[in-house]
Amino acid sequence: MHLNRMNRKFLFILMAVAAYRNSAAQTNGSSGIWKAGVGYTYNYPGMTGYSFAGEYIIPLTEQFEGSIGAKYIDLNGHPRTPSVGEYVRAKTLDFNAYWLPLRSDAQLFRIGLGYSFSFYNTKAAYPLTIQTDGKQTTQWPTLQEKGTTTGINLIAEYEYIIPNSCVSIGLRAALYKASDRTYFIGPLVGYRW
Questions:
Q1: Would you state the pLDDT for residue 56?
Q2: How do 107-125 and 128-132 pair as beta strands?
Q3: Distance (Å) of CA 168 to CA 32, 106, 164, 165, 174
Q4: Distance CA 186, CA 173 (A)
Q5: What is the DSSP string of the chain?
Q6: Which residue has the higher pLDDT, 135 or 109?
Q7: Average pLDDT score over residue span 142-166
Q8: Distances in Å between the alpha carbon of 79 and those of 43, 91, 124?
Q9: CA-to-CA dists, residue 68 to 26, 63, 76, 164, angstroms
Q10: How far apart (Å, rounded) are the C-alpha atoms in residues 186 and 33?
Q11: pTM of model > 0.90
Q12: Dihedral angle over CA of 118, 123, 124, 129, nearest 10
């Protein structure tokens, strides 16, 4: 299997984080957080939809966390012409690192940077101008494409921990990679164990 240089570096970092997490769990018994959310997703004018996201967060230190997650992104619209419905559907595998600048017993704020591996399926229309006998007409042929891409995630998240409970609720805003840059905002729920 061929891995490019960036993917090899990222795989090395992931294994180092997992090894560190394993040793930290044995010494201080810290737990992880399962989170899930759904939200509004925007790609460009006329192309909107929703995303489902799930994530497991691993505490690394008091101020830093790492995570592995997955998303399903479904965008639809008629951004170029009303005659063609376009879409983007993507499944991603995400690796994120978080810094917690604000943390208390009841709430926290995360700022994250991550890397996504995206597997997408798109349908897009493109204008084709044809001149016949001095008359110009525009047709909208479609292009369907399946592919993979990788990219950076930028995440900001507020989480409120419900008192005397393992459950938390919050709000996430993010810039993700699907087939292209995708904006996301939506609620989330977390479970600490």
A1: 96
A2: unpaired
A3: 13, 9, 11, 8, 19
A4: 7
A5: ----HHHHHHHHHHHHHHHHHHHHHHHH----EEEEEEEEEEEETTEEEEEEEEEEEEE-SSSEEEEEEEEEEEEEE-SS-TT--EEEEEEEEEEEEEEEEEE-SSEEEEEEEEEEEEEEEEEEE--EEEEETTEEEEE--EEEEEEEEEEEEEEEEEEEEPTTSSEEEEEEEEEEESSSEEEEEEEEEEEE-
A6: 109
A7: 93
A8: 10, 22, 9
A9: 20, 18, 27, 27
A10: 18
A11: no
A12: 140
The pLDDT value recorded for residue 8 is 62
The pLDDT of 62-74, averaged and rounded, is: 94
What class, spelled out in words, does domain 5-192 have in CATH?
mainly beta
Amino acid at residue number 83: S
164: left (phi over 0), alpha (psi -120 to 50) or beta: left
Task: Kindly report the number of other CB atoms within 10 A of residue 15's CB atom.
Answer: 10
Residue the block writes with tokens 């993010």:
174
Taking every pair of Cα atoms in the chain, the longest distance, rounded to a whole number of angstroms, is 80
Rounded distance between C-alpha atoms, residue 192 and residue 160, angstroms: 12
